[in-house]
Amino acid sequence: MSDYKNKKISVSLINLKLNNIYSIYNALIECGYKVKITEGKVSKIASDVMIIPGVGSFPKAMDYLRKNHLDKVIQEFNYRKKPIIGICLGMQLLFKKSYEFSKCKGLSLVDGEVVKIKNHEIKVPVIGWHKIKLLKKSQIIKKNLNNKFFYFVHSYHCKPKNLSNILTLSKIK
């Protein structure tokens, strides 16, 4: 991300039509980013960074992306080695497949799958404030977020094939 010093970063915020993206939009504007909400059929995204937020169902989100050819646009953005940030469902969509409701193919940018949490010591769905454990430093996340609280609402988790792709884990009691 050092390429982005001294210039206003442009961000494309993908609207999946499943959630309220304006809290993310307003936070990005407040931080000084140039933000464009991307929805419907587009042929290319020219921003510096893409954010795929999400609350909702994996199959519905993938259906929306495919119907609007945004799946191909996102894959092309990735091919150009530009940063893509997935938040919640947005991160899950980056994976090869999910088992939410039924087996569903994802964007296949990350080799792995999204599966239901099956830990008898954890109440599912996971709801509440939990600390995260930072496993390694990132070019994207500059601030030390180790042992910081984040709010979680989920019943599924991502299992990348390559464990070195895991940046953080949540500390759920």
What report would you give on this structure?
The chain is of the alpha/beta class. It is built from 4 helices and 11 strands. The strands form 3 sheets. Strands 2-1-3-4 form a 4-stranded parallel β-sheet, sandwiched between helices. The protein has a 4-stranded mixed β-sheet with strand order 6-5-7-10. Helix 1 (22-30) links the parallel strand 1 (10-14) and strand 2 (34-38). It is globular and about 45 Å long.
Number of strands: 11
- Please give the order of strands in the largest beta sheet: 2-1-3-4
CA(first)-CA(last) distance: 34 Å
Unreliable stretches: 1-6
Outline the biggest β-sheet.
4 strands, parallel
Give the integer mean of the pLDDT values. Answer: 86
Kindly list the characteristics that best describe this protein.
alpha/beta, 173 residues
Outline the secondary-structure elements.
Layout: E1 10-14, H1 22-30, E2 34-38, E3 49-52, H2 58-67, H3 70-79, E4 84-86, H4 89-93, E5 95-98, E6 104-105, E7 110-116, E8 126-134, E9 149-154, E10 156-160, E11 168-171
Parallel strand pairs: 1-2, 1-3, 3-4, 5-7
Antiparallel strand pairs: 5-6, 7-10, 8-9, 8-11
